[in-house]
Amino acid sequence: MDFKLNKNFLNKEYSFYKKKAYECFEKDKFEKSLLCVAFCAFIAWKYPILYNFCDDDLEKILEELSKEIVFHRNINIKPVKPNKVIFYNSQIIDSGALTEQYLYYFIENEIEVLFIIPDKKYTLEGVNILKLIENSDYVELFIPECSGYVEKIKKIVEKIEDYMPQKAFLHFVPNDVVGYASFCTFEDVTKYYIVHNDHTFWLGKNCSDFFIEFRKFGYLLATNRRKISPEKIFHIPYYPIVQKINFLGLPFDRKGKVVGLSGANLNKYLLDPSLAYFYAVKKLLDRNKNFVFCLAGWGNERLIIEFIKENNLEKRFYFLGRRKDFYELVKNIDILFESYPLKGGLTVLYGTENNKPIIGIGEKRNASGCIEDFFDLNNYKQPQNIDEFFTEAEKLIIYEDERSKNASFFSNNRYRKTKFESALHTLFCDISPTPKQVYSGDVEMDDDYYLNQYINLPNSEFNYFFSKMLMLRTITSFFEKLIILYRIFLCAPSDFYLKIREKIMNKFKFNYQRSHKGLHR
Questions:
Q1: What's the chain's Rg over C-alpha atoms?
Q2: How far is 272 from 264, CA to CA, in rounded Å?
Q3: pLDDT (tens digit, 9 = 90+) per residue, 400-433?
Q4: pLDDT per residue as tens digits for the range 197-210
C-alpha cells in the first residue's frame, strides 16, 4: 500500500484530537473529551513526536474536566491523616514495572495503604500482587465498579476524600486520564509520580508535587525537556522483583556449551529493520562452535523465526518465547546480552543479581543510553557500535576469566533492596524534603532517528489504526469508522485474516459442541 506513517501525519492526528477534546469539553461531552485526550496521549506515548515529552495544554484540559466532573459533589474535606498513603496503579503486572518494590516497602513498614486500580481488567497479569494485597492487614484494595471514565473519576475522588491520606504515590501508564483527573484536584495531598517510562511521553507533570526517577537519562529528560525543576526530582534506582517459579529447562543439552541469552519485548530488537544485532550474533555463532544463543520475548515472533530459518540457525539460535521463569533462566546461562537498539532495565538487573557477565551496545541516538549511566559507573565504558560489541562479546565467549571479571564488576555495582528502601525512607519521612540536583548536562538523543525507529516497526500502520479503532470506537461517526477500517484492511499483516478465521471457526466449534451436548443431556 502507498500510505506510511510519518511525523507530519502523526502531528496532524495529535492536533486534531486535541482540538476535538477541547470542543467536546466546551459542549459538556466529558466522556468524549476524556477519550480524545487519552488518544492524544497514546499517540505521543507510542510515537515520540513531542520534543518536550509532555503537553501542559493537554493536561490543562484534564484539569478543567476534573473540576466539572466533581463540581456538583458535596465535598467534605477531612483532615489529612498521617502514616496513610494512597498507591494508585493504572495496571498491575507481576514482576513488571515498579508496583511491588513500593508495595513491599509500605507493608514491611506497617504503613496503611489504599491501593487503587481503575479497572478490574487491568489486574489480569497481577495475580501475585493481588495475593500480596489480600494477605496484608495494611492494604485496602479499591477498584471502582462502574464503566466509563467519568464515573470512575467520581468514584475514585469520593474514595480519596474519604481516606484523605498524607501522601499519594502515582504509578500511571502514560495515557491514564482517569488517574490524572482523579488526583489533580487534591492540593493537600503530597503526590509522588513514579516514573517508569522515562523515555516516553506521559501524563502527570502538573498533577504531581515530586517525581521519582530511576536513572540519569530520566533525570536529564525531566529537567531539560519536560522542564521539571530539579528540586522536585528524587533519584531512586530500583531493584528487581523475583518470582519463585521452577526452571522450565532449555531445548538443548548445554553440556560443553557457552550459552548466551537476551530477553525483552521483541520490538526493542525490531526497531532496527536490518537486524544488525542478530547478524552480529550469527557471526559469533559461526566463529564459536561451542556458543549457543537464546532469545526470550514476546511480540512479532514471525520475523524472529524467519531470521533463524533463513540463516539455518535452528540448532544454534533458539527462540524461547515469553518465559515466566525468566529469572531462573538467567541463572542457567553464561552471558547476558542486552536488547538492541532499545535497551531494557529489568533484564540487566536480573543479570547482576545472578552474577552474570553483561554485554550490550551503548546507544545515545534513542533513549537507551549506556550501561555506565544506568549504574552510575565511572570506571567502565560500554561498546558503542556493532564492531566493538562483537570484539567484547567474543572475548566473553572464549575466555572464562573474562566472564568472571565482568560478572563480578557488575554484581558489585548492582542495585540492592536495602539501598532502595533507605532512599524511599528518607523521602517518606521528609528527612530530606528538598531533593538535591544530582546530574547536569543535556540529553543526548537524535529525535528524528528515535521517532523513525517506531514508525518503521513492522506493522506499525496496522497497529496504529487498529488501536485507534479500539480507543475511539464509541465516539467516531459511521463514516470515520469506515475510513479507519479501510486503513486496517490495507495495512493488515498477511497472517491477520488467518487468525481472525481461526477465532471464528473455534467459536463456531465451541457453540456447536455446547449445543450438541445440550441435546443429549
A1: 24
A2: 14
A3: 999 999 999 999 988 889 999 999 988 887 655 5
A4: 999 999 999 999 99
Give CB contacts under 8 A, 24+ apart, made by 468-473. Answer: 468/39, 471/35, 471/38, 471/39, 471/42, 472/35, 472/36, 472/39
Q: Please say whether the beta carbons of 335 and 403 come within 8 A.
A: yes
444 contacts 364 by C-beta, under 8 angstroms: yes
Per-residue buried b or exposed e for 481-491, using 16+ beta carbons within 10 Å of the residue's own CB = eeebeebbeeb
pLDDT by residue (tens digit) across 377-406?
Answer: 888 899 999 999 999 999 999 999 999 999
Which string of b and e fits 75-113 if b means at least 16 CB within 10 Å?
A: eeeeeeeeebbbbbbbbbbbbebbbbbbbbbbbeeebbb
Q: Which three cell numbers stand for residue 278?
A: 542478530
From residue 444, how far is each of 128, 363, 366, 368 by CA, in Å? 38, 10, 8, 10
Three cell numbers, residue 228: 521539571
Domains 79-239+419-428 and 258-414 are alike in CATH topology: yes
For residue range 79-106, what is the model confidence (pLDDT) as tens digits?
677 789 999 999 999 988 899 999 999 9
Would you say 194 and 170 are in contact if contact means Cβ atoms under 8 Å apart?
yes
For residues 212 and 194, is the Cβ–Cβ distance under 8 A? yes
By the 8 A CB rule, do 203 and 116 touch? no
Question: How far apart are the C-alpha atoms of 463 and 286, rounded to whole Å?
Answer: 36
Prediction pTM value = 0.91
Cell readout for 354 is 545472578
More reliable by pLDDT, 79 or 213: 213
Q: Classify the phi-psi angles of 299: left when phi > 0, otherwise alpha if psi is within -120 to 50, otherwise beta.
A: left
Element (H, E) at 263: strand 258-265
| All three cell numbers of 109 | 513498614
**501 by DSSP, 3-state: which?**
helix
Topology at the third CATH level for domain 258-414 = Rossmann fold (3.40.50)
At residue 517, the 3 state secondary structure works out as helix
What are the sequence ranges of the domains in the chain?
Answer: 7-67+448-491, 79-239+419-428, 258-414
Q: What is the pLDDT of residues 120-143, one digit of tens each?
A: 999 999 999 999 999 999 999 999
Q: Which residues contact 322 (CB under 8 A, 6 or more apart)?
A: 296, 297, 298
Q: The dihedral of CA 396, 398, 399, 400: what is its sign?
A: positive
Fold of the domain spanning 79-239+419-428: Rossmann fold (3.40.50)
CA 301, 302, 305, 307 torsion: positive or negative?
negative
The three cell numbers of residue 236 are 531512586
Q: What does the angle CA 182 – CA 75 – CA 133 come to, to the nearest 5 degrees? A: 45
Is 3 exposed, middle or buried, given 0-12, 13-18 or 19+ CB atoms closer than 10 A? Answer: exposed
Cell of 422: 533507605
Sign of CA dihedral 319, 323, 328, 330: positive
